Amino acid sequence: MSAVMTTAPGAGLRGPLSALRIATLASPGIVVPTRSSNQSGGRVRVGTVTAELQSCAALSRWDNSELRRLWKRRAFVTRSSVGVVDALAMEDHQDVEAGHGVGKLMVEVRAAYKSGRTRTPAWRVEQLNGIVRMLGECEGEILEALFADLGKPAHEAYVAEISLVRSSCKLAIKELKKWMTPVKVSGSVTSFPSSAAVVSEPLGVTLVISAWNFPFLLSVDPMIGAISAGCAMVLKPSEVAPATSALLAKLVPLYLDSSMIRVVEGGVEETTALLEQKWDKIFYTGSAKVGRIVMAAAAKHLTPVTLELGGKCPAYFDRSADLKVGLRRIAQGKWGNNNGQACISPDYILVDESIASELVDALKDIIEKFYGKDPKMSKDLARVVNASHYSRLTNLLDDPRVSSKIVHGGERDESNLYIAPTLVYDVPLETPLMLEEIFGPILPIMKVISWEILINS
């Protein structure tokens, strides 16, 4: 018999994201004399996953050195027949062959996990220290990869990715002993006389599918949670950030236990093959559309899933707001945060109509102060990730109902994947710009009569 409680290690802790991820990757249970386990592992085909994923992702597989050369030249070859960005294929690509290869990898990782090594504090601390060493010894390579994928400025990449991973690691090392310590609880009358405790146990073998917009942070931070919980894991980095994906595939075996922690590179075919396997936990970061596919695949095996998804993210200014302070924070959160390519970036502004014109003028001044009269020359702006996303964003701007409402910016350079910080004022709500997550440097500003009317409508 076995009993499961609802509390989780790390729940309620304040600190980096790993506290949440540890909570979702460890399964607490009451210690009882005998335990039962379900080891059934039959494979279930996910019939339409490949086709659905292909409609959601723009694929790119580039050699790392070639990618850097192309980025510096801003020269991209568009394969318009399938709407994806393409360049020279990697000769040394080490993708796991879809289907059979992923199944073999899964058997190997699960066999390693069953050895029990991940249950010891020593193994977990060793892996966490390995990540800390990797950050220290390979910081330059990480910064290069992030610039190659996103044109991400070095200071932004360090603050938004490397420093957060280091902070998560240090938190996990500091708190690990407490997270692993059993918590005594009162026994029930049905088990009297007895003693009881809540013991945090690893769920097993986990799959992490990371996103392209913060490709290092969103790959390694969930890894820290899995390691701290004592799980083995397979990481699938985003193929849309190929330089970072290739770097992770190179570094992870050098610094971590490669029998327990594996990296699978590739695109839709590899992701489909991974989702067909039976996992004990899946952690996915990305769009809601692909999130539905991931959850549907996980449901075949009743696998628990954590989805970290995007959406519309408004900011509201009422007439009492300090515009100078508030708008500086908005500008930093929008264009200083991967140039709007982040789920926590402000998607649009709602403002009391009495101060709307003042807000627009103030925000124009702040953009010029942050990025100069010609933001294209600024070294503090990342670029759009690839030609597919560039096309999506320019299509939003080219809608006549939107283009006529541009009050600042709008300049673009396809060869550099550059779109200037752009303000659009009072755009119609039924336009695609206001119906889907923007995920780019475009910021609509909508005036409202009052907060009460806004909520009620």
TrEMBL record:
UniProt-listed PANTHER family: ALDEHYDE DEHYDROGENASE, ALDEHYDE DEHYDROGENASE TYPE III, ISOFORM Q
KW Transmembrane (keyword) present: no
Listed SUPFAM superfamilies: ALDH-like (SSF53720)
Entries under InterPro entries matching the protein: Ald_DH/histidinol_DH, Ald_DH_C, Ald_DH_N, Aldehyde_DH_dom, Aldehyde_DH_NAD(P)
One of the GO biological process terms: aldehyde metabolic process
Aldehyde dehydrogenase domain span: 108-450
Stated family: Belongs to the aldehyde dehydrogenase family.
Protein name in the entry: Aldehyde dehydrogenase domain-containing protein
Keywords from the UniProt entry: Oxidoreductase
GO cellular component terms given for this protein: cytoplasm
Organism: Ceratodon purpureus
A GO molecular function held by the record: aldehyde dehydrogenase (NAD+) activity
The keyword Lyase is assigned to this record: no
Gene3D superfamilies the record matches: Aldehyde Dehydrogenase, Chain A, domain 1, Aldehyde Dehydrogenase, Chain A, domain 2
Pfam families: Aldedh
